[in-house]
Amino acid sequence: MSRSVHFEPEPGAREGAPGIIVPTPALIMAAALVVVVIGLAVAARWFNTGAFRETTAAVAVERSLRFTDALDGGILVTDGTTGVEAAALPPGTNGFLRGALRTLSRARRAAGLGSEAPFRLVRYVDGRLLLHDPATGQHVTITSFGPTQVAAFDRLLPPAPVPARP
Question: pLDDT, tens digit, for every residue of 56-72?
């Protein structure tokens, strides 16, 4: 005789509906699977392996940028070092850029920080593009959101230096 776990019909089920019968070995295997998955996740974190780690790569090009709201509803982008205007983004455009800035600015407000410190837009040699907030240590990995978003931020970077030939 096989052992099973019987569940009664849920309230509101049709009259005379049979209960659910789950074999005990199936429940044991499901519990074992959960334990194994949690164990693997803990082991990956403990031994510092897995996809959750971002490897450190050399910086190809970077720029400090300040973003301010323009009177017409657009965004004025200035170089954080020189104060020279880098771009003027028209109102109603660049929704992803606005969202990324909103996320980082919210973290600044939560930490009680002002908007004086510029953000860093960094392109690494491995191709990753990050918008980094040195004030809070948070960042948004732009390359995770596809080529359209990367193009919106790439135009704010200076051209990458051409490597010298040996």
Answer: 788 889 999 998 888 88
- Domain total for the chain? 2
Domain around 42: 4-46
**Of 133, 131, 136, residue with least CA distance to 112:** 136
User: What pLDDT is recorded for position 3?
Assistant: 76
Q: What is the pTM of this model?
A: 0.62
Rounded CA-CA distance 3/13 in Å is 25
